[in-house]
Amino acid sequence: MNIKELLEQYAFHDSLVEDMSFENNRLEFQIYLWNWKQTTYEEQEDEMKNIRLIFKEIRNFTFKGTEGTKEKLDGDSILEFNCEEEIMIEELCYKVKFVLHENVSGKMKIIEFIAKEVEVIL
Predict the structure, then answer these.
(1) Fewer CB atoms inside 10 A, N or C side of the chain?
(2) Contact 121, 9 (CB under 8 A)
């Protein structure tokens, strides 16, 4: 799925990033998604559900945080998750930005990278 479609299909604001791993140009997020905020939500469903996002062929990965912030994610709230189209080597890619709020300390984390697509595992 392309990343723009992902953001059109799911509402991520305030959902929780439980974990992140980055190895071999593959970035994976484990997210506890606010299911009740989704347009497809039905009352008999759980209000929250786990979802995994797997981005492959990652380029230009950066992780920035306020002083004392750790790169480990553990229940950090998603304040912003967006993307911009970007052409790299004649291919359509997406510059992705996550802005996270560390719930315990209140510190901010920003994760940015470039990817072509994302795999969604429910």
Answers:
(1) C
(2) no
